[in-house]
Amino acid sequence: MSSLRLDGIYTDKMVIPANKNFHISGHAIPKSEVCVEVLNHVYRTVADDMGTWKVRIVLEDKITCDIKITNLAETITLHDVKSGKVILLTGQSNIEFKFRDDSEYQSQIDDLNLNNTYFYNVPQVEYQSDELTLPKDLKTSTWQIANKETLWEMSDIGYWIAKKMHELNPKETIGIIDCYKGGTSISSWVPESVLTSSQELINRFIKPFEKATTNKTQEDYDQEFAEYNALVEKHNVDLAKFQKENPDVSLSDAKDKVGHTPWPPPMTPTSYLRPSGLFHTMIEQVKNYSFNKVVWYQGENDADNPEVYGIMLRGLILSWRELFQDFSIPFLVVQLPGYFDEPENAWPKIRQHQLEASQRINDVHLVSIADTGEKHNIHPTHKRIAGTRIGEILSDQSYSSTPIVYRQQILNDKLVLSVSSVSTLVQKDDAYFLVKQNNQWKKREIRTVGKVIVLDDCHGIEKIRYAYDNYPTCTLFNELGAPVAPFEMEIEKNE
């Protein structure tokens, strides 16, 4: 067996960020020298006591080249390495949703116009007992060029992102790194230091895990899974029966009648849903790589804990920046789409935390897709709008975020809200706020003037809400069709 090996993400055809330092890392014989040769430059380092090594590469120009790594008598050569714009896509099922399942897949493949795009799917390791040893049955990944033969494996949103970026800059090389896992809470994606940072997080995530996995035998787990699987089977039978009896009813409406697939499954010590699990098994797989930007699309599985989502999201962003040793890497946070079947106001609360993260943390940008989604289908097969909108922002050729209300003023008893990322607001249908006065919520019409929103007669208003529903109606957009982000806002008293 070879002593020299690279971490999994370093393969032929990889894309590295243009004009940005990057690292190559792997394992070798402990205390031995490792040399990395790039464009006639040689970088040297020495493996540590565990054999781990990492080399920092400094390049100022765009490149296409081979990279040679040497350790003692062994050599590994990476072929066809290119520089470009590298995006890390992360989150749960809606960003994991494969392009092959998109309603437009076949028409896009038949008329494909996508060049200079490559992608890498981070292996979905659910559990590993040794950080140096990956599961034996794990399917390895390599960087692939995005074409008709490979695109079926790519993130659906990732495809639409790349398509828009390619349209806006056809000569730029794009590298998409897919790192996601469906059905997951944000608690699976953060390190233990975040989860133990407050007693509230310990009570919500750590203690329930300990209770579910302490003093149980394998027979106990087998029984729990048998009961869970029986519930899933009953749901599938009931759904199939309903669809057969009602062939004209959509899947979304059918699930509204029958119910949704039971989730989550029982917790075990090795479940990928465990606290901090995927931070170690997936995010740490790419900790030494470099990215231009990170896209985070998640929140669906935290509808039961929306109050603490803001703490968790902040912890995720800051801990990842520390892990990547890139403290200013931009994050694009995707504000959840519409979906009705959740506890009342669960998704609006999460959207509010996503909005506030973009306002309070440096280099965090919001991409709202609250005007998309299906009422009773958590996995819509139409991802064009979401991916295109993210791609526009990633391309750095338009606004850096969704339109956001960033300032309030009271002028002559009128509430005036200033909106960013807009030249002229566009109002679709009747636009209104929910307004809280005398501890009661009422609908009030609003109007737009240029890039501001105006609410007349604002005396005594305590709080306002816009599009504050699980399945909202968005009526305010910028001139490019991007929605004003749903929000809730306290109104400052005008002394």
Describe, in plain words, how this protein is organized in 3D.
- The chain is an alpha+beta fold and 495 residues long.
- Helix 3 (156-168) crosses helix 11 (384-394) and helix 6 (218-245) packs across helix 7.
- The chain folds into three domains: 84-191 and 276-402, 3-Layer(aba) Sandwich (Rossmann fold); 199-275, no CATH class; 405-490, Immunoglobulin-like.
- The chain has helices spanning 93-96, 105-110, 156-168, 192-195, 199-213, 218-245, 251-258, 277-281, 309-324, 346-360, 384-394, and strands at 5-6, 15-17, 22-27, 33-38, 41-46, 52-57, 64-71, 74-91, 117-121, 144-145, 174-180, 293-297, 331-335, 364-368, 405-411, 414-419, 426-427, 432-437, 440-445, 447-449, 452-455, 461-466, 476-477, 487-490.
- The strands form five sheets. Strands 2, 4, 5, 7, 8, 9, 10, 11, 12, 13 and 14 form an eleven-stranded mixed beta sheet that branches.
- The mean pLDDT is 94.
- The longest helix has 28 residues, at 218-245.
- InterPro entries: SASA, SGNH_hydro_sf, SIAE.
- Pfam families: SASA.
- Residues 85-213, 274-394 form the Sialate O-acetylesterase domain.
- Keywords: Hydrolase.
The computed structural class is: alpha+beta
Low-confidence parts: none
Strand content: 25-35%
Helix content bin: 25-40%
Q: What would CATH call the architecture of the largest domain?
A: 3-Layer(aba) Sandwich
Separate helix tally: 11
Distance between the termini: 76 Å
CATH class of the largest domain: Alpha Beta
User: CATH superfamily membership of the largest domain, which one?
Assistant: SGNH hydrolase
Average pLDDT level: 94
